[in-house]
Write a structure and sequence with these properties.
The protein is mostly beta strands. It has a domain of 55 residues: Microbial ribonuclease fold (Roll), CATH 3.10.660.10. 5% of the residues lie in helices and 23% in strands. The protein has one helix and six strands. Strands 1-6-5 form a three-stranded mixed sheet, with no helix packed on it. A three-stranded antiparallel sheet has the order 2-3-4. A hairpin with a 5-residue loop joins strand 3 and strand 4. The structure holds zinc ion. The site of zinc ion has 7 residues, from loops.
């Protein structure tokens, strides 16, 4: 197998979620190589749709740290709060109207 192209590490597209580097292939697909493979010393990225492959020019100093401890839960926690409050109270409000007090002031002189 021949190398289609030598690609600088900086020119690769990186997906931090999958930790896979990709590079557009002329066939329309993408070369891909995982970060783990790069740490293992592999520098050949292959295309899943054709036989082309690229050689990646990189130094290990350029590689981001490989996350190996990824056992944390995905954070899928569903909290079901079954609080059902039955409100049978009748909210009757009685308005107390204060009757106006008529003061009859008889001024007798
Ligand atoms: Zn291809």
């Amino acid at each position: 197998m021949s190398i289609y192209e030598e690609v600088e590490f900086e020119d690769l597209d990186y997906d931090p979620v999958t930790q896979i580097y990709t590079y557009p292939c002329p066939c329309g697909d993408k070369f891909s190589i995982s970060l783990e493979a790069l740490w293992d010393g592999e520098d050949i990225a292959t295309c899943p749709s054709c036989t082309l492959r690229i050689e990646i020019i990189y130094d290990e100093e350029d590689l981001p740290p490989l996350r190996d401890d990824d056992d944390e839960s995905g954070g899928e926690e569903e909290e079901e709060e079954g609080e059902k409050k039955k409100q049978d109270e009748k909210g009757e409000e009685i308005d107390h109207n204060i009757a106006s007090v008529l003061q009859k002031s008889l001024t007798v002189k």
